[in-house]
Design brief:
alpha/beta; seven-stranded mixed β-sheet; two-stranded antiparallel sheet; 9 strands; disordered N terminus
Length: about 260
């Protein structure tokens, strides 16, 4: 495929808030936003046909393939995740799905260029050899196939803070920011991610920037939180809302997450 001209400063002006056709949204405290999973499934479905064969690299418990009722293979290095995915598949009687324990840097499949769509959601930042993973996955994507990646953005202030702080402190903060925390070994930004993809003949046709509200637990009635932590946390939450609204209109390259849709 001939390499297209991509103006990253232009493509990064899009954000997930621009997807006005998605009616579903979530409410946390006073803030309403488009659900990450809903928006992600909407975008992926727009590239998936009934005949499409999908590879979900780093599938976790398989929620994406299971919810889409797609045909394909899910890979994850965590055996417990794959056990749960296979249990859910069996319960739903989805014989068109297969979940396998595997390292996405060393995929145990014999044939290349077999998948119409490859998905790699929130995985690369947890992989030590993330470029090796991209090069390995590119081998299994058909020509003209779509490669959909989401990953955290190293230009985001929270991600920069995580990088600068000592690991013990940043781990405590990030565990508070997210319901499900996994250690992060490295991050891309929209620019060097695009450059890495281009090395393996994957050319971004669209780049979206988006964010998910942190501190959701502060608005849960099930969790008892000390008053000082509650006050500081809610102040930081409202600061995050202001930042999120600002980056909906300009400086979108500073949002928390990147979604790239690339074509081989």
């Amino acid at each position: 495929m001939e390499k297209p001209h991509i103006n990253l400063l232009y493509t990064c002006t899009k954000s997930i808030s621009d997807l006005s056709c998605i009616s579903d949204s979530r409410q946390i405290g006073p803030y309403r936003f488009k659900g990450y999973r809903t928006a992600l499934k909407f975008l992926i479905k727009s590239y998936v046909k009934k005949s499409s064969l999908i590879l979900d690299a780093g599938c976790g418990e398989g929620w994406l393939l299971l919810d889409m009722n797609a045909q394909g293979i899910g890979l994850d290095i965590n055996r417990e995740n794959i056990r749960k995915a296979n249990k859910a598949k069996k319960k739903r009687m989805l014989n068109n799905l297969h979940f396998i324990v595997a390292d996405i840097c060393h995929i145990p499949l014999l044939a290349y260029e077999i998948f119409d769509v490859i998905i790699c959601c929130d995985v690369l930042e947890h992989v030590k050899e993330s470029e090796l993973a991209i090069s390995e996955l590119s081998l299994y994507l058909k020509k003209e196939g779509k490669f959909l990646i989401t990953t955290s953005n190293s230009l985001n202030p929270i991600m920069l803070l995580d990088k600068m702080l000592p690991a013990k402190i940043s781990n405590i903060i990030l565990r508070a920011l997210g319901e499900n925390y996994y250690s992060r070994t490295g991050r891309y930004n929209p620019y060097n991610l695009q450059q890495t993809l281009n090395k393996y003949k994957l050319y971004g046709s669209n780049i979206l920037m988006f964010a998910s509200p942190p501190f959701a637990f502060l608005f849960s009635r099930r969790v008892k939180i000390p008053i000082p932590i509650l006050i500081v946390g809610r102040v930081m939450f409202y600061i995050w809302i202001v930042f999120d609204k600002m980056t909906n209109h300009f400086l979108k390259c500073l949002k928390e997450c990147i979604l790239v849709i690339a074509t081989k």
